[in-house]
Amino acid sequence: MSADEEKPSLPVSFEQLAELEDDFEQVDLELTRVQDKLTKDLYVKREKIIADIPHFWNSVFEVAPEEFEHAFKETDGELLLALKNLFVTRFDLPNGDPRSFSIKWEFEENPFFEDSVLEKKFIYRQSTKGDVSGLVSEPVKIHWKPGKDLTNGLTDLVLKVHAEEKAGKADEETDAKKELKKKIEDTPLGDLSFFTWFAFRGPRITEEEHKESLKKEEEKRQLRKAGKPVEDDEMEEDEDEDDLFDKAYEYEPYPAADDQALCIAEDIWPDAIKLYLQSQEDDILSEFDDLDDDEDEEMEEDDKAEPASKKRKA
Amino acid sequence: MSADEEKPSLPVSFEQLAELEDDFEQVDLELTRVQDKLTKDLYVKREKIIADIPHFWNSVFEVAPEEFEHAFKETDGELLLALKNLFVTRFDLPNGDPRSFSIKWEFEENPFFEDSVLEKKFIYRQSTKGDVSGLVSEPVKIHWKPGKDLTNGLTDLVLKVHAEEKAGKADEETDAKKELKKKIEDTPLGDLSFFTWFAFRGPRITEEEHKESLKKEEEKRQLRKAGKPVEDDEMEEDEDEDDLFDKAYEYEPYPAADDQALCIAEDIWPDAIKLYLQSQEDDILSEFDDLDDDEDEEMEEDDKAEPASKKRKA
């Protein structure tokens, strides 16, 4: 295919496309609201059923999408075996923003930490500086047992820096900040525990700025609907956006956390049963592989097993 | 991660999981209905805006998902430049099945065929033989200009076989069938025109069988809801399913058509603007590449160009 012969400059205005995209986004938000309403009870029903399946969520994470490739280190895996339950809630619904959600992790007694529940909230915020948005989160305190901190002090350090910033030292180069920065630099990716995920903070967009941005957005929307010109601040945005994220990521030991959180909320959570059945099929297939290596082993074991799910054609 | 120490056989019944999956599927269908209702007017509005953009759909297909990799041959590309408009409709809504849809292709005058509109319907059907479903379609007649048939007679042959089957010769090994089978075998994948897509028929599931299957499904649903045992015909299904698709694919020159149709309906159609903007960015980037090779060319052209879309963080 080649359309290069006559390369058109865009013959419709960006305003028209922006308005259209905005319309579609509003519909998407509405659909998430409807979906939340229609599935709420089903997820509670599911929770009861999978409570009887040992290591359900651990198996699900074994076949999770690529966002979780290499995410779990060996000791993380031991800890994940103690994961009893996981629950995603769009806590701001029915009236608030469908883009905010929380992920609640319930653990059995385990050798690593004292907590039985770790809940992390991801709050959707958009900046007044252009078309920039992100998930903002408070770092979650993990009560590690002595000598068992898989994050090697990273989660506690982030909490310390966070507390300092809240106490008005956001622009100060404190000792804790220096230590955190050095620890981040010194930690090889291969040694970074998944549980550092709980320390994620995201871009520093305050609730105030978010509300101001929503207001600005709504004003633009009204201007567009009235056919009036809308001021285009696309150029300055780029720098501000980079700045916003760079500043946050300087003290962020686990910058992939928001993408992984979205992956849990949008893929793993709704598809959990399918993923679990897939993990069981994978186990059966690898058992067959083992069998090939050792033909003397009895076959009854495998004959009982049967592919759990059937892929539909459409 | 390793949960292999104690591999559990499934401690909950397949019935429970099947019921749950069925519940979620019903919600998905309902969501498609709501989505259709909420987006209907927006797609009409979009159609009007993109009508002013030359080669819009051609550009979209240039960055289409992997389902369309290698789908378009060089001459297909020439023909695609004449593609004026594309429209997806879930024609069975609001009251019917949201899984059925049609794709309407509108063409300008072109050297290849006389048609200005080619519309292909994909009808969701499920079989009574187990958990098997698919998209069924009638082959679409393309009025090729003399010597211009890009499919080398394949679309016409499928139409002939289809007409014979309708005339009661479904189990006969006719000359047309033999010829079609041989032509399919003799056509290298690299020579197969995308326009053979219009000949796709899918599994031979009649409307009658589909309705019977829906009835059976509803009966099972009621039994499950009443807590009664549901007959499990999982074993026999496997063979029947293979049989159903093998039989159809024997005379199917373009078996990927249903996956591509789904890709259009679920990805390309809703994301068309994003894909178009992405194709324009790609063009700009490749212009920069050209520029690197030839530093003497004037730069004004590129300075005007600016990335069209901004990827949001969340």
UniProtKB/TrEMBL annotation, chains A, B:
Residues 208-221, 305-314 have a biased composition (Basic and acidic residues). One of its GO terms (biological process) is nucleosome assembly. It holds the Pfam family NAP. Residues 208-249, 286-314 are annotated as: Disordered. InterPro entries: NAP-like_sf (IPR037231), NAP_family (IPR002164). Residues 231-244, 286-304 have a biased composition (Acidic residues). GO terms for cellular component: nucleus. Belongs to the nucleosome assembly protein (NAP) family. This is Uncharacterized protein.
